[in-house]
Amino acid sequence: MPRKIKSYGRQDLIDIALPNHADSYTVISHESVMDLSTKALEDAGFSITAENYRATHDGNIASAIYTLNFGDDPELSMMFAWSNSYNKQMRFKCGIGAIHNTNSTSLVCGDMGSWARKHTGSADTETKETIEQQVKLAKVYYEQLCSDKESMKKINLDVRKQSQILGMLFAEHDILTTEQASMIKQQMSRPTYKCTEPGTLWEFYNFVTIALQQSHPKTWMEDQRVLHWFISDTFKFDKVNVAPAATSDEEETSEENEVNEATVDNKATVDTIPENSTEETKDPAQVDLVDSIAEIEAEQQEAWDQQTRIEEGLDHKGGGDDDDDGHIDDSPEITGIPDGDKLSDTDDEFDADAEMQEMKTEEIIKEKIAEDEAAVSEVCDDNPIPEVTDAEAAELIKGQEAVDQQMAQEAAADNSVSDENVDIVMKGEPDFNLDFAPVAEDDDDVEAGDVDFDFA
To answer: Is the dihedral of CA 445, 447, 448, 452 positive or negative?
Structure first.
């Protein structure tokens, strides 16, 4: 049975023993992430109103959600979330999102740039920088989520379209397990969340986020990010231009330039325009060059996202097992099979293998025949057959014929029937006797003509 993910307290995660890995692996402790996150949020003017921690049974993979006191939207509160691991199964990652106050589900932007860090080298230093970067862009991401929510309320979605989106999230984007897909289907027919705009994209979005609450801490943030990216890209939500918070003009310029480069899968981009940019106005003829640069940057980001997926082991879907031991399949891999149904690289090599096998079989048969012939020859040499003349052969034949004739006569005599036996059979004399004598105690029956017969 897979172990269930359970809630932890702050001190529970702090008490988890740190692993002892190789020098190339830099351990980022849960406690250091908590401290860095809290300090960065406080320095930016945010205060944490609630903390929620989830982790695997051994605490090696953990995630946290901090609800913040920012925002005037009546439905969404700002949140800061992070995920971390001790067993090399995922990178550290963090980001800004929103909490739906009605059902406590989460929203995470689909285009948060470089929000993950590997546990190598200076990962501890980069973790601090990543947290601070995401906090500085908190207003950008929060306002975008609020805008997307209002856009989803205006999009009607019938059951057929909801089913199509559900199938794509499950089969194509692989962010749902079979159990989660079943939960969403049940919500579509018997919703536990009473949306103020039923039959809209916003209602269906909440069905999915309710199911994603059951996601493994290792994939929860990525699942949330992919969901929002897919929905926003499919329905083409408008981008919100919001200047990020900054502590100095230099930091603001640097951070805004980074946001201009933040892309996800070459499809979604956070557009912000630096107010103090010194860049000259470009004429329309240079648009193609700018697009080319953006495409190159997007390709680099896409490669980064793909590497992140590989290292995080996103094939947990469909397995349904919360095993945290990081099992690695060490079974031998069959290579050089282009069509998947041949044991050699090409048809020619397959034919050559068959021909070689046939030749070996023929050689084995020939060797066996030679061995048998040699054995027969050896026996004949040890027991030579004496030569017989024609006269001797004729005498032997006559003798054998005489023996055969005598045996035939004896057999005929044994099968003959005597005249006495023939007379008995022909006259019909039985091989048994019938005793018609009446029984003494049945005298009355005899006189009455009612006779009992006994077989002797």
So the answer is: positive
pLDDT digits (tens, 9 = 90+) for 394-439: 888 888 888 888 888 887 776 655 555 545 545 555 554 545 445 5
- The SS3 assignment for 200 reads strand
**Cα gap 39→47, rounded to integer Å:** 10
The type of residue at 371 is E
Half-sphere exposure at residue 421, Cβ-oriented, CA atoms within 13 angstroms? 4
**Residue pair 83/218 in contact by the 8 Å Cβ criterion:** yes
Lowest mean pLDDT among 38-42, 243-247, 308-312, 382-386: 243-247
Nearest to 49 by CA among 69, 35, 63, 34: 69
Tell me how far apart the alpha carbons of residues 367 and 189 are, in angstroms, rounded to a whole number. 76
Q: Give per-residue burial for 39-68: e unless 16+ CB within 10 Å, then b.
A: ebbeebebeeeeebbbbbeebbbbbbbbbb
pTM reported for the whole predicted model: 0.54
How confident is the model over 176-208, as pLDDT tens digits? 999 999 999 999 999 998 899 999 999 999 999
- Whole-angstrom CA distances from 138 to 45, 144, 236, 247, 255 are 11, 10, 22, 14, 12
Helix (H) / strand (E) element for 149: namely helix 138-153
The Cβ of residue 151 has, within 10 Å, a number of other Cβ atoms equal to 17
Q: Give the span between the Cα atoms of 92 and 83, in whole angstroms.
A: 6
User: CA-to-CA distance for 261 and 264, rounded, in angstroms?
Assistant: 10
pLDDT confidence of residue 151: 96
User: Is 50 exceeded by the pLDDT of residue 262?
Assistant: no
d(CA 143, CA 244): 11
What residues pair up with 434 in beta bridges, in sequence order?
A: 455
